[in-house]
Design a protein that fits this description.
The protein is of the alpha/beta class. It contains 13 helices and 15 strands. The strands form four sheets. Strands 2-1-3-6-7 form a five-stranded parallel sheet, with helices on both faces. Strands 8, 9, 10, 11 and 12 form a five-stranded antiparallel sheet that branches. The longest helix has 27 residues. The N terminus is likely disordered.
């Protein structure tokens, strides 16, 4: 799904494997009037962001979890994107000759030094009095905001990669970030690891943890990425602060609480009266719509975890759907052949 976000602000990529430092740098970058294009904790995620997103500049740690960030430097240079180093290493001992003239800031970071370096790197951010262009986010919750709310929220959002198996929230722990998927699929589970069942599936039409707007900042269950993709995320306390200062923004996100409760009630009601085959048909149909793709990279074990049933039941259910020519199933992927047929079966 295409993504366009243009606030007339240079977009800065941050590559840093220390979460707290990445958060600090992100806040400083936004405070200087720039937008954060994304935060990459590893060379792999950084290269993915460079390949996929429009980036105007970058702040790079030299060492990313034991791997030098120099391939990112070369990728950025090939695209004509300027960058600087923020590192505890000396540039005279570890930086290749080709990057010796790159701006190098030392840790701990001095905010004034970063602001000056960014201005030299990518120019001044637009003055606060300039009228920004309304952004679009490729997420239905964010795109349905009014123009003023979009602009107010955009400066605090960062785009991150979602990888299959990533755990975003853990039961009993504080919800640090809210995620708005662009591509990919996220599951919210209730119950223990041994008995859990999916209670909500979130794609580009939704958001995680809407309950934080009611002050409920402790996760009731696991939130896990089922299909890789990307998402916008915002710190929980930042979203709460923005909502407290903007009544329309608060109403918008409180409406998402209502949407989530209705979906939860519908799922519980349907699961209590439908067969496993019908539940499977319904889930595959909804996943197809949320992903915009008929090919779902899901294993039988993942589907069993989602529906809270034994793996043999999933295998039997998929065979039944395949026998009706509604899907084609392999060990690691399911292709939906007839969405209308799945919908008809799920409505029974």
């Amino acid at each position: 799904m295409p993504l366009v976000i243009d606030l007339q602000r240079p977009r800065i990529l941050i590559a840093e494997d220390n979460y707290l430092i990445a958060e600090e740098v992100g806040e400083l970058v936004r405070g200087c009037g720039y937008a954060v294009a994304g935060a990459a904790p590893s060379l792999e995620s950084g290269m993915a962001l460079i390949a996929k997103d429009a980036v105007d500049g970058a702040v790079l740690d030299i060492d990313l979890a034991g791997t030098p960030s120099f391939p990112m430097c070369r990728a950025l240079s090939a695209r004509g994107v300027p960058f600087l180093f923020l590192s505890g290493y000396s540039p005279n001992t570890v930086v290749p000759e080709e990057f010796r003239k790159t701006i190098h800031l030392s840790k701990p970071l001095a905010p004034a030094a970063l602001e000056s370096a960014l201005r030299n790197l990518v120019g001044w951010a637009p003055a606060s009095g300039e009228k920004p262009v309304e952004p679009t986010f490729a997420n239905a919750v964010l795109d349905s905001l009014n123009s003023v709310a979009k602009v107010a929220l955009a400066a605090s959002l960062e785009r991150v990669q979602l990888r299959h198996g990533d755990v975003l929230d853990v039961p009993g722990r504080a919800v640090d970030h809210i995620y708005f998927p662009i591509e990919g699929l996220i599951s919210m589970f209730a119950g223990t690891a041994a008995t859990r069942i999916e209670v909500a599936s979130i794609g580009c039409d939704g958001m995680t943890a809407p309950g934080v707007l009611l002050g409920d900042t402790v996760s009731p269950g696991h939130t896990m990425v089922q299909v890789s993709g990307s998402a916008w995320r915002i710190r929980t306390r930042t979203l709460q602060r923005l909502a407290e200062g903007d009544a329309s923004l608060r109403r918008h996100f409180l409406h998402q609480v209502s949407v989530a409760l209705r979906q939860l009630a519908d799922t519980a009601s349907y699961s209590g009266r439908a067969t496993i085959v019908e539940r499977l048909a319904r889930w595959l149909l909804q996943a197809t719509y949320r992903l915009g793709n008929r090919r779902l990279g899901l294993t039988h074990d993942v589907l069993a975890d989602i529906l809270g049933v034994r793996r043999p039941s999933i295998t039997t259910g998929l065979q039944a759907l395949e026998g009706r020519h509604l899907i084609r199933s392999t060990r690691r992927a399911i292709v939906v052949l007839d969405p209308a047929g799945l919908a008809e079966l799920a409505r029974r």
